[in-house]
Design goal:
seven-stranded parallel β-sheet; 13 helices; 18% strand; globular
Length: 330
């Protein structure tokens, strides 16, 4: 198998690359599990040394707007593509042209390069629940009309439609998977409007203060990194016939208010650690978060055998185990 991951230096990209290298198996177009022969990791920055030093790995760094770079990342013989690279929500809202160039134009270029190979590579496109917004029914089903309230959400919706059409035309074997807000992300805050959802857990557990820019009543649809990685692989490995006429699915998640997330932190780590959160309203972030629907019906994902998290408390414990080296909360 020859696999490409875009956005490979991001935390989901890094975890996915490690998982693939460790398992050394991915379903081919005929459904049989095949060994990983080559993995191309593409991002603006290189991944961690442990991954980059694997003899099966080729690292490419540069701008997703560079077609020649994308052509290097998607050579003839590419079997599978995990397209994770994106300008995140608040970043795409602040810089419209950059968001369009990376989130939309580069996605179309990737699909066109795959089309040019005439081998129908399997493409897993990371979309977002930001595809929905505004006055929406609760819960939202996979095929509820998409009315994104941000440029980022609009770009993701167009990407989903392109994946569907390129698959219908038999150019690629595509799957468009909508991520809930992923918590808890390791590392540092980024420009995603949802970055606070990880910060209010991550920083207090590491002895630092965190700022929450939205009200405690704000409700969010969430999933852990563990379930996201597992579902990316399951979505990839499903047979084409399993998908039916639509190549889109919303990954399973769970809905909590921000206040309930803090309560879960208290339950796991205690009141002192949860007390390291400062509440400071940011109308820009609040407006974006309020535009995201919090309740989803994931019957299609359940029928496809995708997995869900048990509780926020378990998600926090998994973060401590996976990213804090199982150290007790400070």
């Amino acid at each position: 198998m020859q696999v490409t991951i875009t956005g490979a230096a991001g935390f989901i990209g890094r975890k996915l690359a490690r998982r693939l290298l460790e398992s050394n198996a991915l379903a081919g177009s005929d459904g049989t599990m095949r060994q990983l022969e080559r993995m191309i990791l593409l991002d603006m920055a290189p991944p961690d040394d442990a991954t980059a030093n694997d003899p099966r790995v080729t690292v490419l760094t540069g701008d997703m707007r560079d077609r020649s770079l994308l052509e290097q990342a998607l050579p003839a013989g590419t079997d599978s593509v995990f397209h994770l690279a994106a300008v995140v929500s608040a970043g795409a809202e602040e810089d419209f042209d950059l968001g369009m160039a990376v989130n939309l134009d580069a996605t179309r270029t990737i699909l066109e390069i795959c089309r040019g190979h005439s081998t129908r590579p399997r493409v897993v496109f990371a979309s977002s629940c930001a595809a929905f917004g505004g006055e929406m029914p609760e819960p939202i089903a996979d095929m509820t009309a998409r009315t994104p309230q941000t440029s980022y959400g609009t770009q993701k919706v167009i990407g989903e439609l392109l994946v569907n059409d390129y698959s219908r035309k038999q150019f690629v074997d595509g799957r468009a998977v909508r991520f809930p807000t992923v918590v808890v992300r390791p590392g540092k805050p980024n420009k995603a409007a949802s970055t606070f959802a990880s910060s209010i857990i991550r920083e207090p557990l590491q002895g630092q203060r965190a700022t929450c820019p939205v009200a405690a009543r704000s409700r969010m649809f969430l999933a852990s990194p563990r379930s996201i990685i597992e579902n990316l692989l399951r979505a990839h490995n499903l047979a084409e016939s399993d998908w039916g006429p639509s190549r889109e699915v919303t990954f399973p998640g769970f809905t909590l208010s921000v206040g309930e997330m803090v309560d879960a932190l208290k339950a796991v780590a205690g009141n002192e650690i949860a007390g390291r959160i400062d509440w400071s309203a940011d109308p820009f972030i609040q407006a974006i978060v309020d535009g995201w629907p919090p309740e989803f019906d994931t019957d299609k994902a359940d029928a496809l055998g995708l997995v869900r998290d048990d509780s926020m408390e378990d998600v926090i414990r998994a973060f401590i185990e996976d990213d804090l080296d199982a150290a007790p909360p400070a």
